[in-house]
Amino acid sequence: MTPALARLLAASDPFAAAPAELRLELSFVGANGAEVPLEIWRRGDDLALVRFLAERDLGKYVVRRGKEAWLLAPGAKNPVRMSPALAPAGGAALDELLSLRLARDYRAVSAEESRGVVTFELEALAPDVEPPRVRWAVDRTRGLPLRAEFRTAEDKPRRLVEFKSWQDERKRVPAEIVAKDLLRTGSALTVRIRALEGRAVPQALFDLQDASAREALPPPPAPAAAAPAPGTVPSPGAKDQRPP
């Protein structure tokens, strides 16, 4: 791979420069158009808290510690361990994107360009890196990722993510992505990112027994308008993107 393509790959990684500790405000949008508002609080790659913000879901959380995830629900005596198979496609895809470090954790097996789109075939440098393989398509002119296909170690497609629009192209902050689990049937799930901010995230948020830190979180933000925020920039060819 040429130095120019290596720079293009590194610069296209949307969350490579994201703070190690951050808060995301977002919503999932199902096929019926219903939105599920959420917050994600992350502390490094190993700790994540999903906070449900809809009034009917207040007090419900998912805590991820390493590769294990737990559901915490109001009235439940104990946390319930979740199977990865129960994770929504959009949530799992976003979690993988937040942890993705293309330049650090992958090597490019090949790179091909067609009609201004460079498609990288990436292979993880270590056996514990997830996903093991990635097919990564980038708009050559704008340097923005168009889609990512997460693949198994056997090179079978596992999940498809398409970047539909951007809050901030320069900082590589997406506004909307669409994710589909290719190993299971079901419609694609849209993820709309409302806000991303770096802030201190206390370790106590991820305690499975002591809920005091979670109960001390600020009140849920006011519901966002359904229409895209002004200044949202569509990805080039967003309507016509297809896996290469």
What's the layout of helices and strands?
Layout: H1 3-11, E1 21-29, E2 35-43, E3 47-52, E4 61-65, E5 68-72, E6 80-82, H2 89-99, H3 102-105, E7 106-114, E8 117-124, E9 133-139, E10 145-151, E11 157-168, E12 173-181, E13 189-198, H4 212-215, E14 233-234
Textual characterization of the structure:
It is a single chain. The chain contains four helices and 14 strands. Helix content is 11%, strand content 41%. The chain is globular. The longest helix is centred in the middle third of the chain and has 11 residues, at 89-99. The protein has a single domain, classed as Clam (outer membrane lipoprotein receptor (LolB), chain A), CATH 2.50.20. It is mainly beta and 244 residues long.
**Tally of individual domains:** 1
Number of strands: 14
Structural class: mainly beta
Any idea what the CATH superfamily is called? Lipoprotein localisation LolA/LolB/LppX
Query: Major β-sheet, in short?
Result: 14 strands, antiparallel
At the fold tier of CATH, the topology name is outer membrane lipoprotein receptor (LolB), chain A
Rg over CA atoms, rounded to whole Å, is: 18 Å
Low-confidence stretches at least 5 residues in length (pLDDT < 50)?
226-230, 238-244
CATH architecture: Clam
N-to-C series of helices and strands: HEEEEEEHHEEEEEEEHE
